[in-house]
C-alpha cells in the first residue's frame, strides 16, 4: 500500500460517518413532509428495487466494468495528486526528526482529506445513502445511525487492512447476491411492519 493505512482509514471512515449522519438527519426530516406510512412503503419499494437490481446485475446481466474504470480513473488522479504532494513535502524535509514528524502529519492530512472527499462525493446518492435515509425514516434513527456507523467501520477497516486478501476468497458476485437478498429481506420486513 502506497499510503499509510491509518490516514486512508481516517479519511474513508470520516466520510462515511458524516454521510451517515446527514442521511439519518434527512430521513427524519422527510417525516415532517410525508406521513410515516408513505415513507415506510416508499422505503420497502426502494429495498425491493435495490435488491432486484443487484440480483439482476449478477444473475442475468454481466456487471459492467464502467464503474470500475471510473473509480480506477479517479483513483489514478488521486494518486497523481498525492504523489505530487508527497514529492513537494519530501523536498521540504530536513534531517531534524521534529520536521519529519510534522511532514508525516501534513502528508497524512492530505491523504485523509483526499480520501474523505473522494469517498464523500463518490457515495453521495448511492444505495447505502438512500437506504440509510429510508431506514432512518422508517425506524429509530439512533439505532440506524449506530448500526450504519459500525458497519462502515468494519467495511472500511476490512478494505484498508485486507481487501485484496479477502477478495481472493470471496467473489464480488457472491457479495452482490448476498446484498440483493438482504435488500429484499429489508423490503419484506418493512412491508410487514406497515
From TrEMBL:
GO terms for cellular component: membrane. It holds the Pfam family GDT1. GO terms for molecular function: metal ion transmembrane transporter activity. The keyword Cell membrane does not apply. It is a multi-pass membrane protein. It is found in: Membrane. The chain crosses the membrane at residues 7-32, 38-56, 103-122, 142-162, 174-192. Signal peptide: none annotated. Residues 61-102 form a coiled coil. The keyword Transferase does not apply. Belongs to the GDT1 family. This is GDT1 family protein.
